[in-house]
Design a protein that fits this description.
Length: 270
């Protein structure tokens, strides 16, 4: 499915765009189902909160951005449960992840027209920390996503820095400190995409996106998959927000989408 050059790019740069991985009919069905789930269960917010907004948005925009997020849409729609096993996507993942592949999450992202929310520079690691690098985020575009719609921006090779210290706390979404990691300070590259394209990127790759300033929706969905050998990390005893790299938890029991999970002397799931 993927060429040697594509696999090498992913491991060297920390991301890879695969064009038209999903067919037009598949993308159309998922886009319609995303609208249905959002209209039935979603709620519009201003997006991520936190002090980073002062560094990324003008004063008149800080409280006026818009976003719709939905976690685990497979709880509401069989279509989203079935796509977890999408054949072409899983074939790519088998070439990017060492060994059996385990599903972790699905999140719908929708940036409404005119001022769809931006996202600050961050890694996805703090949102679902694990004890290794073999975790791949898969961003499926359900609309054409030119630069002005708030396309994904990545910092090539940044995954090699490993997990970085983020601004964490009860009043903010995890983000990298803007005084050090900001688009004005750190060079990034745009990854515009068409409907049906998928961007695979490491959960340790630094990325961000600007506002959607077009008159059209920018809909996408992120799937997360990782090696079955990886285990989640817990929080520090003295700080419920700080990730403790030494606090390795029990391996989770999510769906295996490729390969076989070997028994490491663990009890069977009841």
């Amino acid at each position: 499915m993927l060429s040697k050059e594509q696999i090498a790019q992913y491991h060297e740069q920390g991301y890879l765009k695969v064009e038209e991985l999903f067919s037009p009919s598949e993308s159309e069905e998922l886009a319609a189902e995303m609208v249905r789930v959002i209209e039935g269960w979603g709620q519009e917010t201003i997006g991520w909160v936190g002090p980073w907004r002062d560094r990324y948005l003008g004063e008149e925009e800080r409280l006026n951005t818009k976003a719709v997020f939905m976690h685990n849409p497979q709880h509401y729609s069989a279509t989203w449960g079935q796509v977890i096993f999408h054949e072409k996507m899983i074939r790519c993942l088998r070439q990017l992840i060492d060994g059996p592949v385990q599903y972790h999450h699905t999140v719908l992202h929708a940036k409404p027209p005119e001022l769809g929310t931006p996202f600050p520079m961050h890694q996805d690691f703090p949102f679902y920390p694990h004890d290794g690098p073999d975790f791949v985020d898969c961003l499926l575009h359900l609309d054409d996503t030119p630069l002005e719609s708030g396309a994904l921006m990545v910092v090539p090779g940044s995954h090699k820095m490993g997990p970085l210290e983020h601004v964490l706390g009860p009043e903010t979404a995890p983000h990298l400190p803007p005084e050090k990691f900001h688009p004005d300070r750190v060079e990034s590259v745009a990854v515009p995409a068409q409907r049906g394209d998928m961007v695979f990127f490491s959960y340790q790759t630094i990325h961000w996106s600007d506002c959607n300033r077009t008159d059209a929706w920018r809909k996408s969905v992120r799937f997360g998959y990782h090696s079955t050998a990886m285990r989640p990390l817990g929080r520090a005893e003295d700080d419920p927000h700080r990730i403790d790299l030494n606090n390795v938890l029990e391996r989770n029991s999510n769906i295996i989408v490729a390969g076989f999970r070997e028994n490491d002397a663990e009890p069977a799931l009841s």
